[in-house]
Each structure stands twice: as C-alpha cells, then as structure tokens.
Design brief:
mainly alpha; rod-shaped
C-alpha cells in the first residue's frame, strides 16, 4: 500500500510539474503571439486537470487514513485475542478479521487503482492532445510571425515608397511651376527679341539696298566722267544695237511675249483640242521670243562688261594723277542683287 501510494504521489507530482511547464510555455507563447483566446482555453483545461489531480490526492489521503485506521483495528483485535488466552480463538479471530480486512482492502484498492489508472490514462490522452495542439499552434505561430514580419516590412517599404513618391510629386510640381513662371517671364523677352530681329533684318536690307545704290551711283558717275573725257565712247554706246533699236524695240519685244502668253491663256485647253496646229505655232513663237529675249540680255551683259573694262582701263591709266577717282569694282554691281 505504501509503495502504491508513493507511486501515485510521484506520478501526480510528475503530472503537476509537466502541467506547470506547459503553463509556463503557454504564458510565454501568449505573451509573444496574438492567440489569447486559445491560450485561455488551454489554461482552463490545465486548471481543470490540476483540480482533478488535487481531488485524486485528497482521495489518496482518505484511503491512506482508512488503511491506517484498519491497521489500528487489526492490532486492537490481536491485542484483545492475546488477552483472552484462547489460541484457537485468537488465531481464528485474527485470521477471519485479517482475511475480511484483506478482502475489503484489496477490493477497495483495486477499485481505486482502476479509477486512478483510468484518470491517469485520460490525463495522458489529454496531455498528448494538448501537446499536439501546442506543437501545431507553435508551428502556426512561427509561420504567422514570419508572415507578420514580412507584412510589417512590406508596410514599411510601402510607406517609405509612398512618402518618396509624394516628395517627388511635390518637387515635380514645384519644378513645373518654376518652369511656367520662367516661360511667362521669358515671353516678353522673346517677343521683344523677335521685334528686334525683324528690325535688324529690315535695317540690313535697307543697308544692302543703300550700298547697292551707292555702288550704282559711283559706277554711273565714273561712266559719265569717262564719257565726258572720251566722247568716242559715248558715240559708240549710242551706235550700239541697243542704241539703234532703242527702248521701243525692247518694249515691243516685251509686249510680243506678253501677247503670246495672253493668247495661250485665252486658248487654254479648248484651243489645244480644237486647233492643235495653232497651239504648236504658238509654242514655237514663244520659244523664238524667249530665245530673242535671252540673246538681248546676253548682248546687254556683254556691252556692260565692255564698258566696265573700258572704265577700269581708263581709271588704271589715270590712277597716277593727283586726286584721281577711286578704283572701280571688279564687276558692275546691280541694285537688283
């Protein structure tokens, strides 16, 4: 009996220590996780197991006290039988009492042992279930912690990226505002620059025209001086084909070309279809008039070149004189250029 009671006490102590260890682990997990409701359920189950263990300890204590009382009664009966002096009665009484007490004690002990075994088996099963649930919960908590840390890192990165995007957006908005202000400030300057550019272009054109007119006047003055000094040059210029023909011939040629163009315009596509021969003759007349005009222009150009050569030679010969006119340009300038 003492050995069984001691074994039960040791088993209960082990169960108590294991329950304490599990409760500590659960408290640590509860402090580090977010599954408070599950931990509360496990703590309630552990508290119920501890209460059942305490009740079993009370039952064991009652059984031990009953065993002690029974032993005291057996010893008392043995003492009474010894005082009576009847060995047979003493032996029979002691044997009967001992056998009855032993049977009662054996049955009670067997029942208690069976109940304890059942309770211990149930406690072991519950403990195994709790351990399995605890292991699964720890695994889930580890995975949840990993995902929670990843989510926190992602949230921090997203917040940082959003702040950076807001900062860049503000900088871009400020830069665009500054650009628009600079463009608005440069717009009057651009307009003024365009006005000044147009003015400069007009002044340059006027300057070029003035320079061309100046060169033309210088050329005319030198030519007049040369004609005054050499009357033969003026007679030769008057006796040239252009002089003989006069301005009337040039005007007639110009009017002829103009009339041909007007006639072609009047005929149009209808004249081409109806009078193709007239159209061919008209084109031939236009070509001949164009060739005549080109020859006239070439003759005028050669005449001007010859006049320029004569002017240059005269200036070169008279260049040694005092206060001679300035040297003429290499070619006659044209104000139309």
């Amino acid at each position: 009996m003492r050995e069984a009671a001691a074994a039960q006490a040791v088993a209960l102590q082990d169960a108590k220590m294991e329950a304490l260890v599990l409760s500590k682990k659960l408290r640590r997990l509860e402090a580090g996780g977010s599954h408070a409701s599950l931990f509360e359920v496990y703590e309630e189950e552990l508290a119920a197991s501890q209460a059942e263990a305490a009740r079993q300890r009370v039952v064991v204590g009652e059984l031990e006290s009953a065993v002690r009382d029974l032993r005291l009664e057996i010893e008392t009966l043995r003492a009474v039988a010894a005082e009576a002096g009847d060995p047979a009665l003493r032996v029979a009484g002691s044997e009967g009492l001992a056998s009855g007490a032993v049977d009662v004690l054996a049955e009670g002990r067997a029942a208690k042992v069976r109940s304890w075994k059942r309770a211990l088996a149930i406690a072991d099963k519950e403990r195994a279930v709790l351990r399995a649930e605890l292991a699964g919960l720890q695994k889930r908590i580890r995975h949840a912690d990993f995902h929670r840390r990843a989510a926190e890192d992602s949230s921090r990165k997203l917040l940082k990226a959003s702040r950076e995007a807001e900062r860049l957006t503000a900088e871009l908005r400020d830069a665009r505002l500054a650009q628009s202000q600079a463009q608005a400030a440069l717009l009057p300057a651009e307009r003024e620059r365009e006005v000044l550019r147009d003015t400069c272009r007009q002044l340059e054109e006027q300057l070029q025209l003035a320079q061309a007119a100046k060169r033309e006047l210088q050329f005319e003055r030198r030519r007049d001086e040369l004609r005054l000094r050499h009357p033969r040059l003026s007679e030769a210029s008057r006796s040239s084909p252009r002089g003989r023909g006069g301005g009337g011939a040039a005007a007639r040629r110009g009017s002829t070309c103009e009339l041909l163009r007007l006639l072609e315009a009047e005929l149009g596509t209808t004249g081409v279809r109806v009078l193709p021969r007239v159209h061919v003759l008209l084109q031939r007349a236009q070509r001949e008039a164009g060739a005549e005009e080109e020859a006239r222009r070439e003759a005028m150009a050669r005449e001007e070149e010859l006049m320029q050569i004569l002017v240059d030679e005269q200036l070169t010969r008279g260049g040694g004189g005092a206060g001679a006119a300035p040297a003429a340009p290499a070619a006659r300038p044209s104000i139309k250029a």
